[in-house]
Amino acid sequence: MRRIPRPKPEQTDIVPLSQRDFDAMVAACSGSRDYTHYRSGATTSNTRPTELRDKAILYLLIDTGIRASELCDLRIRDLDSKNRQITVTGKGDKTRTIPLSDQTWRTMMKYILTARDNAPGDSPTFLSKQGTSLTRNALYQLIDTLGTLAGVTDAHPHRFRHSFAVMFLRNGGNIYALRKILGHTTLHMVETYLTIAEADIEQAHALASPVANMRRK
Hints:
Layout: H1 19-28, E1 35-36, E2 43-44, H2 51-64, H3 68-72, E3 79-80, E4 85-89, E5 95-99, H4 102-115, H5 136-150, H6 157-170, H7 175-182, H8 188-208
Antiparallel strand pairs: 1-2, 3-4, 4-5
Helix pairs in contact: 1-5, 2-4, 2-6, 6-8
């Protein structure tokens, strides 16, 4: 048995969300898809009471790459309004601090001041419709629902983590900072994201290279 090589785990393709995908999912937070009444022919749609919460979740996922469990475990006290950053507890009970962009912070504060104002520091940041702590299953279902409304396939929290990592590197971030933000102990997974980002750069150069696009006689 020792001479039999171990099978390698199957590598799934990482396909990050596009900006169009993300924008469509944010728009889907505002209401359900329009539908036409079969008798009257009138077109209508339903508003979503969790719009502010859902937008805050989407922006937080795409801006930080935190895991589903880390988002669900996030407490009010973990939000640092002075420095506009959050503290999350990851695997092995290790904590790390992650800064937020201005847009994400504004989206978060709009939700907090509207739905969670004066909430105790140890209470969950995100609640379910029933007022209980948001679970991982509920979060996965929420992202799947928003993806369906937006026409985005394979929408789930971990895809946001992948998307953050690839976008971070595309925009000039370094792999060491990315490893710290994501909470990885090694560079193995981060190097996978780097390979994807570099492939994007090569494709972009092939399309936009000045020499490749010169008109030659």
